TrEMBL record:
Gene3D superfamilies: Jelly Rolls, Winged helix-like DNA-binding domain superfamily/Winged helix DNA-binding domain. The keyword Transcription regulation applies. Keywords: DNA-binding, Transcription, Transcription regulation. The lineage of its organism: Bacteria, Pseudomonadati, Pseudomonadota, Betaproteobacteria, Burkholderiales. InterPro entries: cNMP-bd_dom, cNMP-bd_dom_sf, Env_Response_Regulators, HTH_CRP, RmlC-like_jellyroll, Tscrpt_reg_HTH_Crp-type_CS, WH-like_DNA-bd_sf, WH_DNA-bd_sf. It comes from the Bacteria. Pfam families: cNMP_binding, HTH_Crp_2. This is CRP-like cAMP-binding protein. The keyword Transcription applies.
Length: 222
């Protein structure tokens, strides 16, 4: 790898295939090479790395885990793939962990250099990028829920995601459709109704006359 210039490496990455020579050279001057050992974390869920990681060779797994350590593999990354872009675009922590499955060589592009490649933050295209990242984060959470949580946990997480904080009270405005909830959590309407009824009987949630739902106690999805 030492005999190949950064520009040559950049040109091999599909992400940068449409760059002009000057743009590619600017990226090449900014990246650094880094080698990750087998099992080493490249990014960690819940943290920020402030960099874009581009795989040159090797293999890495994108995964998420619950508090018991149970893992779900969301994707397997190979040469030409990249990670960290979501966090750089919306400035939120990583939604998943990425671990090197074998020895993996990467190019690392810092936040400032990456930002120079983005459209203006006030532009429509940047707004669309942020919207796409939000959808991807929601998709990751949905996959994690379906794989790691039982129906009770999935209903609890969905209720928390739907709730708004109003003067210290978590409130879901409007009627919560059991049918729609069932489609979101991947369960039958009858099962969702049983879970909701149990939560109401335990005093965890309260359904108001207009159909809105108040979350009265700590609702856990673990």
């Amino acid at each position: 790898m030492a005999m190949i210039s950064n520009l040559d490496l950049i040109r091999r990455v599909p992400l940068f295939s449409m760059l002009t020579t000057d743009q590619a050279q600017s990226i090449a001057d900014s990246v650094v090479k880094r080698r990750f050992k087998r099992g080493e974390l490249i990014v960690e869920q819940g943290t920020k790395s402030n960099a874009l990681f581009i795989l040159l060779n090797g293999r890495a797994r994108v995964l998420t885990a619950d508090h018991r350590g149970r893992e779900v593999i969301l994707a397997v990354l190979q040469s030409g793939d990249y990670v960290g872009e979501m966090s750089l675009i919306d400035n939120e922590p990583h939604s998943a962990t990425v671990r090197a499955e074998v020895q993996t060589d990467m190019l690392v592009l810092g936040r400032l250099e990456f930002a120079r490649c983005l459209p203006e933050s006030s532009s429509l295209s940047y707004g669309i990028l942020r919207g796409l990242v939000a959808r991807l984060r929601n998709a990751d959470r949905q996959i994690e829920s379906l794989a790691l949580l039982d129906v009770y946990g999935r209903v609890a997480r969905t209720l928390l995601d739907m709730a708004e904080d109003e003067k210290g009270i978590k409130l879901i405005r409007g009627k919560v459709s059991r049918q729609d909830m069932a489609k979101v959590v991947g369960a039958s309407r009858e099962m969702v109704s049983r879970v909701m009824k149990d939560l109401e009987e335990r005093g965890v949630i309260e359904t108001l006359e207009n159909g809105s739902v108040v979350i009265k106690e700590r609702l856990t999805h673990d």
